[in-house]
Amino acid sequence: MIRRNLILKIAEWLLTLFKYGAIALVCIGLCVIIFKPQAFSELAIDLNSHLFTQMDIDIPVLSEELTGSADWLSSAKFTVSTLKLKIEGSRQLRIISFFVSVFIVSIFYIIVSQLLGLVKSVKLGSPFINQNAKRIRTIGLILITMELFLTVGNVVLNSLLEGSVAFENRLSSAHINIGTEILDNWFFIGLMILVIAEVFKQGIAIKEEQELTI
Amino acid sequence: MAIIVNLDVMLARRKMQSKELAELVGITLANLSILKTGKAKAVRFSTLEAICEALDCQPGDILEFKNEKEL
User: Rounded to whole angstroms, how far apart are CA atoms A110 and A116?
Assistant: First the structure.
C-alpha cells in the first residue's frame, strides 16, 4: 500500500514537472525566436539538441567507403551504412523546426496532462470511470495522428529539400529526418493503447453492473 | 426499463420505513434507494429473499413487468 502510494506520488510529481516544463520550453523558444533570433541556436543546444534548430539527414553510403574495427572485439569489422548529418543555421530551417518542435511539445503536453488525470483518479481510488477510458483513448489517437502527421511531414520536407540539398553523388537517396527520433514509429503503440482503452471500457461496464447489483 | 420496482407501495402497505427495511435486509439505505428508483441493473436472489421475508410478500408484489412497446 505504501509502495503504491509512493509510486503514484512520484508519477504525479514527474508528470506535473513535465507538464509545466513543456509550457516553459515553448515559451522560452517563442521568446527567443521573437526577441533574439541570433541567439537561437546556442540556446537550443543548451535546452535540447533535437528541439528547435536542427534536422538530421540520413545519407546512405557505400559499404566499402567507411569501415572500422575495435581492439576489444577481436577481428570484428564494422561497416557504416548510413551517415547522419546535422544541419542547422538557416532561417527557414529554424522556422520549420520551430513549428515541428511546438507540435511535438504540445503532443507531449496533451499526453502528459491525460496521464496526470489518470494518476489523480487512481489516487482518489476510483479509476474505473468513463473519463479515464476517454483519456486512454485520447492518448492512443494522438499517438496515431502524430505518427501520420510526421510521416506526411517527412515526405513533404523530403520532396521540398530534394532539389535544394546537394551532397555529391548522393542527392537521390538522402533521407531527411525532422528531428523526431524519440517519437519514431508510435503507430503500433498507439494502436495497442486504443485496444487497452476498449478493454478498459468493458471493465467499466462490468464494474457498473456489479455496483448496481443489489 | 420494463421492470418496475414497487417497493414503495409494499412499504406503505406494511407501514414500514425505508431505514427499517434496509436494516432488516442488511443493505445500505443508498442501495435501497437505488433499488426503489429503478436504477438497479440486477437484484441478487439473496437480497430478494430477504426483502420478501421482511415484508412478508411474494417477489411478484415487488416487481412488475410492463411492456414498453405497448405504452
Answer: 10
